[in-house]
Amino acid sequence: MKISRLYTFVRLAELKSFSLVAEELQLTQPAVSIQIKALEEYFDVRLVKRTSDGVILTPEGEILYRDTKEMLQIWDNLKQKINRLQNLVKGELNIGASTIPGEYLLPELIVGFCQEYPLVELKMEVKDSRSVLQDLLKKKYDLGIVGIKPEEKDIKAIPIASDELVLIVPKDHPFARKGIVIRQEIIKERFILREEGSGTRKAMKEGLAKLGVNIADLQIAAQLGSTEAVIAAVESGLGVSIVSSLAALRAEKLQRLKVIQVKGFQIQRQFYLAYLSELEDKIQVQKFIEYIQNKK
Questions:
Q1: Model confidence over 277-287: pLDDT tens digits?
Q2: What average pLDDT does range 82-90 have in this prediction?
Q3: Residues with Cβ < 8 Å from 9, sequence gap 6 or more?
Q4: pLDDT the model gives residue 72
Q5: Is the pLDDT of residue 124 over 80?
Q6: Could you give the domains of the chain?
Q7: pTM of whole model > 0.70?
């Protein structure tokens, strides 16, 4: 019996989709189906059923899922204990990061961590903060780095860096000659926003609310899925936006746009290193947390 087949079965039970499991494990859907079929032949029972709402477990599948999940956790703990005895830090470390830390903070940190722990195979995906936290709860990631403070009780979070939001405009925009503008001026502009679920969008919404501006009352030119896409749209003249200073100042240095001060608008936010309580004893997780805290 291959442990990889049992792990595939557990993820199928949790994600309820062959396609999602295939995507997560970087397999083809037929390969996932073959592994599940092999388990069913091994136990001589049907373990899953396909329905219009996704995959559901049979009674036999429920028993196998419950006990296998516990067994895999024991197996992982055993590997961790053996690694500690050998003073080794190795294995996979899966990180989900929101756009700003994923593109502007983590790359340099990851290089240093991998140099210090060369036996760790680090994998990172970038998406919005809310999606990272949802996948963290599903145990797709060992760690998440996000721009919103997690509210979920099972997630622990450590602040690791701070950032502020700034207004960006095209280089030839009338604001570019002013340097500072007021509330009444910005509400007349066409805005480019990040997508729902983005930590940048949430912070922007809170900052504008303090100025008495409802985000729903803005003229929305576009909603885009990454900060770089927003910057490119501003650079092309589509509109203005409010984004992370980490991204904005880099783009301004390259003369792609102008950063403008808005009177009374000062929004700082934290980036958080998030992880599940039950995974904090995993040696790769421990070492990454220690490494990040030492770099603060």
A1: 888 888 899 89
A2: 68
A3: 35, 36, 39, 47, 64, 65, 68
A4: 87
A5: yes
A6: 3-85 (1.10.10.10), 91-158+272-295 (3.40.190.10), 162-269 (3.40.190.290)
A7: no
